[in-house]
UniProtKB/TrEMBL annotation:
Organism this protein belongs to: Phallusia mammillata
Superkingdom of origin: Eukaryota
Protein name listed in UniProt: Glyoxylate reductase/hydroxypyruvate reductase
Pfam families per the UniProt record, alphabetical: 2-Hacid_dh (PF00389), 2-Hacid_dh_C (PF02826)
Record GO cellular component, one term: cytosol
Family per similarity comment: Belongs to the D-isomer specific 2-hydroxyacid dehydrogenase family.
Domain named D-isomer specific 2-hydroxyacid dehydrogenase catalytic: residues: 5-319
Ranges where the D-isomer specific 2-hydroxyacid dehydrogenase NAD-binding domain occurs: 110-290
GO MF term set: glyoxylate reductase (NADPH) activity; hydroxypyruvate reductase (NADH) activity; NAD binding
Length: 323
């Protein structure tokens, strides 16, 4: 019989059809998050899973799926929701969707940088709620990107794409900190210099978090980190909420340890509407929409389907994650 795959969310037909041609496909046909018990039940006996970043693919799911599970394909660049060690131990191939979402996510990163520095949301609200009295010389001012120092925590594809997009703004200095230091050639080519984590914190006017979430980066932006940052600095997170101790960030914003924050990712997601971060005028929160362009989301779904197809047919996946 045909191989069986389970798709954990409603995807564009163009992606699902790639799978339907070859496999026995079942799908959680809803925009709502699949409940864990249903994920476990639906994974049972499947040869392949196509999942989202909101589905925790842990040991339990892999156990439930059983021995014939050979491929886990995620419609995301992030892999922190998948137990990669377990996949490796079981010989399960993993596919993901880097590269095609780099521009979209970089655009959103730049958007959050400008939204926070130029206080766009605060200004929009002021205009709407009647506090726009007249043109006031010092009203709603914010720091300029021109002449600033921009720091990257994590400088992979997305960080680099942001750096390239920021160059025309006249940024004075780009710094980065990552676990794997880049070569001198890379640094010269891109006009960026390595900084220790502490130096990155202490000298950045804008600090952009774009690293993956791992045991090494979890909660790395904590009280000690925010205490070291400039009181005029702006923190942007387009990576994962888990790299930030969110209560510490909230307190840092309240205490003026940093000036503002732009967050596309939070803990949890969705962030409850009564969360204190939503009360802060100097915090702009978007609902994890980094890759959300029309073109990119469809391309991600199609690539995830192609990864699953290739993986199950023992062909090279277009975008494998090397375990
Ligand atoms: C988005 O966060 C992704 O990992 O693709
Ligand atoms: C991370 O995976 C990136 O693309 O920057």
């Amino acid at each position: 019989g045909k191989l069986k795959v389970f798709v954990t969310a409603r995807l564009p037909a163009v992606a699902v059809n790639i799978l339907r041609e070859r496999f026995d496909v079942s799908m959680w046909d809803s925009e709502n998050d699949i409940p864990k018990d249903i994920l476990l039940e639906k994974s049972r006996g499947k040869d392949g899973l196509l999942c989202l970043l909101t589905n925790k693919i842990d040991k339990k799911v892999l156990d439930e799926a059983g021995k014939q599970l050979r491929v886990v394909s995620t419609m995301s660049v992030g892999l922190d929701h998948i137990d990669l060690n377990e996949c490796k131990a079981r010989g399960i191939k993993v596919g993901y969707t880097p590269d095609i979402l780099t521009s979209a996510t970089a655009e959103l990163g730049v958007g959050l940088l400008l939204a926070t520095s130029r206080r766009i949301v605060e200004g929009t609200n002021a205009a709407k709620n009647g506090s726009w009295g007249t043109w006031k010389p010092m009203w709603l001012c914010g720091p300029s990107l021109e002449g600033s120092t921009v720091g990257f925590f994590g400088l992979g594809r997305i960080g680099l794409a942001i750096l390239q997009r920021l160059k025309p703004f006249g940024v004075k200095c780009f710094k980065y900190n990552t676990l794997n230091e880049k070569t001198k050639e890379f640094e010269t080519e891109h006009g960026v210099t390595y900084a220790t984590f502490n130096d990155l914190l202490a000298t950045s006017d804008f600090l952009i978090s774009c690293s993956s979430l791992t045991s090494a980066t979890k909660n790395i932006f904590n009280k000690e980190a925010f205490d070291m940052m400039k009181s005029t600095s702006i923190f942007i997170n387009i990576a994962r909420g888990g790299v930030v101790m969110q209560d510490d960030l909230c307190q840092a914003l309240i205490d003026g340890k940093i000036r503002a924050a732009g967050l596309d990712v939070t803990t949890p997601e969705p962030l409850p509407t009564d969360h204190p971060l939503f009360q802060l005028p100097n915090c702009v929160i978007t609902p994890h929409i980094g890759s959300a362009t029309d073109e990119t989301r469809t391309a991600m779904a199609v690539l995830a389907a192609r990864n699953l197809l290739a993986g199950l047919e023992n062909a090279p996946m277009p975008s494998p994650y090397e375990l």
